[in-house]
Amino acid sequence: MKNYLFLFLLLIGKECGAQTVDSNARPPFELKLFVNDSTFYNAPMNASQYVYNKKTIQVFPGESLFIEAELSGDSLVNLKVVPENIHKEKTIKISFSQSVEGRIHQQMILSVVNPFSKKLDYSAQINLLNQKKWVKTSIIPVLPGLVSYETWPDLITTIALYDFCLKSESPDSKK
């Protein structure tokens, strides 16, 4: 009987604790990027967060994230990484990758899926391998219910996305 009680408490504890698992914790990993056919960029990355201050998302090449958001007016707040897309109406999917051809860097690709009924706007900064510093970059807003793709010819080691908000399409934008 004690074994059944222990098993029951273990299962209940696991179910209750499932919501408290910190999905925001990125484990340490090795960042590997192709530069050309004979040069690779390898860097050990320490454990870090995916989301900072509930409003800035950092994404490394090779990552795909589900980001749940709450709405405050037209601003997206309380951003958090979730393991799966359960609440499709409020979960943004973000993927960042490197495109290579024959072990040679071609471009970096960011895809953002907008689940909302309004245009999704945000700001971005990229960390360029050659400059080793953050640089603001332009982003095209994502239309409602669609996916957008941003590409850069540069080698980017990471990207930060922030200032997420929803905007109604203006009559001029439909022309």
Mean pLDDT: 87
Shape label: globular
Share of helical residues: under 10%
Q: Number of domains in the coordinates?
A: 1
Low-confidence stretches: 1-20
What is the C-alpha radius of gyration, as a whole number of Å?
19 Å
Instruction: Give the N-to-C terminal Cα separation.
Output: 72 Å
Beta-strand percentage range: over 45%
**What oligomerization state is this entry in?**
single chain
SSE-based structural type: mainly beta
Listing every helix as H and every strand as E from the N terminus to the C terminus, the arrangement reads HEEEEEEEEEEEEEE
Q: In DSSP terms, counting alpha (H) and pi (I) runs of 4 or more, how many helices?
A: 1
Number of strands: 14
Query: Biggest β-sheet: count, sense, barrel?
Result: 5 strands, antiparallel
Reading side by side through the largest sheet, how are the strands ordered? 5-6-14-11-12
Describe this structure in words.
By secondary structure, the protein is mainly β. It has one domain (20-168). Helix content is 9%, strand content 55%. It has one helix and 14 strands. The protein has a five-stranded antiparallel sheet with strand order 5-6-14-11-12, with no helix packed on it. A hairpin with a 2-residue loop joins strand 7 (63-72) and strand 8 (75-82).
